[in-house]
Specification:
Blueprint (H helix, E strand, L loop, with lengths): L6 H17 L2 H13 L4 H28 L4 H11 L11 H12 L30 H14 L5 H15 L33 H11 L3 H8 L6 E2 L8 E2 L10 H8 L2 E3 L8 E3 L6 E2 L1 H8 L1 H12 L1 H17 L17
Antiparallel strand pairs: 1-2, 3-4, 4-5
Bound molecules: protoporphyrin IX containing FE (HEM).
């Protein structure tokens, strides 16, 4: 269900704000004094003129404010606009979807439940040093591609926009419906950036994964469900140092990541890059050391087995875990509506 601001209420709010702003500006005061000096005894008509001017100023200002600042956001329209820009034959596998999912996850995955710092609220990756953290290499592509959407819908915050873009990408690439709420604010300065090292290091294994994800408040089952996003996209040698896609259909979300993890024989890739694995049969797919840890750890493997067998179960658990990820540390208003967006 889409909730809009009542337009009557919105216009009352904007007009009163603007009339305050516009009625105190100089041009109107000058007009008033000139009028008073040339017209004697015309207090009645003066009053009428002032009232007319005030109404015109308020209306013009209201229109400006409505266009530029206070326009209530129709989130389904933003959803549709993002969905429209996903496909691009010149980029990677033909879609910006995977890199947008990665942006939404990296913006949120800095959360620390003990201190309440980090998370998608703030969109702090706009600022150095967070934008320059190694883990975020390449995410300027995702931030830049969303810039025209921000211009078109200036009232949405960057923090909400990035998070929503992750939802759009997942849904439009065949994934489950993700419930989503607006309410994230943008930080004004780099002061809210989290320290480097809060996102997972792909060269590490289960203990590290638990350190990182337990810190956010996730359990083993949620860690495995979230890792299933590696059905999407690819590693880029010039970003992370790793190279290649995890599945043969990197622009479709499915449980293929788990199926391939179990069905293929994974051997260490011989190359001068960081340690990673490739499928013995084709040599065209890859797994990170952190992905392989899902196989070698008994508690993780149980969920890999379950998700490989049952895509519906994976979708259900992934949708819940991704919503939780995107909401970590966000001070939602009690009455914030929860959206389920229609696909394009
Ligand atoms: C479990 C720990 C994780 C590690 C160590 C990890 C690591 C990585 C690395 C190294 C890349 C390659 C980046 C590049 O070179 O472009 C990558 C890409 C990606 N990751 Fe993860 N990731 C993890 C969890 C997640 C989660 C939780 C999600 C989302 C729910 C996710 C979504 C993605 C996507 C969609 C890509 C592809 C991006 C693209 O194609 O540009 N990852 N990840």
């Amino acid at each position: 269900m889409i909730r809009r601001l009542n337009p009557v209420f919105a216009s009352i709010k904007t007009q009163s704000h603007l009339s305050r702003r516009f009625l105190t500006t100089r041009p109107i005061q000058r007009t008033q004094s000139r009028f008073q000096s040339t017209q004697s005894g015309g207090s009645k008509s003066n009053a009428g003129l002032y009232a007319t001017l005030a109404v015109i100023a308020a209306a013009a200002g209201g229109w400006y404010y409505y266009q530029n600042e206070a326009k209530p956001v129709n989130y389904q329209e933003v959803y549709n606009a993002i969905a429209e820009i996903l496909d691009n034959a010149d980029y990677d596998d033909g879609s910006y979807g995977p890199v947008l999912v990665r942006l939404a996850w990296h913006a949120a995955g800095t959360y620390d439940k003990a201190s309440g710092t980090g998370g998608s609220n703030g969109a702090t990756m706009r600022f150095n040093p967070e934008s320059a953290h190694d883990a975020n290499a390449g995410l300027s592509v995702a931030r830049d591609v969303l810039e025209p959407i921000k211009k078109k819908f200036p009232s949405i915050t960057y923090a909400d926009l990035w998070s929503l873009a992750g939802v759009v990408a997942i849904q439009e690439m065949g994934g489950p419906t993700i419930k989503w709420r607006p309410g994230r604010a943008d930080a004004d300065t780099a002061a809210a950036c989290t320290p480097d090292g809060r996102l997972p290091d792909a060269s590490k294994t289960q203990d590290h994964l638990r350190d990182i994800f337990y810190r956010m408040g996730f359990n083993d089952q949620e860690i495995v469900a979230l890792a299933g996003a590696h059905a999407l996209g690819r590693c880029h040698a010039d970003r992370s140092g790793f190279k290649g896609p995890w599945t043969f259909s990197p622009t479709t979300l499915s449980n293929d990541f788990f199926k391939l993890l179990l069905s293929e024989k994974w051997v260490q890739k011989k190359w001068d890059g960081p340690k990673q694995f490739e499928d013995k049969q084709t040599g065209s797919l890859m797994m990170l050391p952190s992905d392989m840890a899902l196989l070698s750890d008994k508690s993780f493997k149980k969920h890999v087995d379950a998700y490989a067998k049952d895509q519906d179960l994976f979708f259900k658990d992934f949708a819940a875990a991704f919503q939780k990820l995107e909401e970590l540390g966000v001070p939602f208003k009690k009455e914030a509506p929860i959206f389920e967006f229609k696909r394009l």
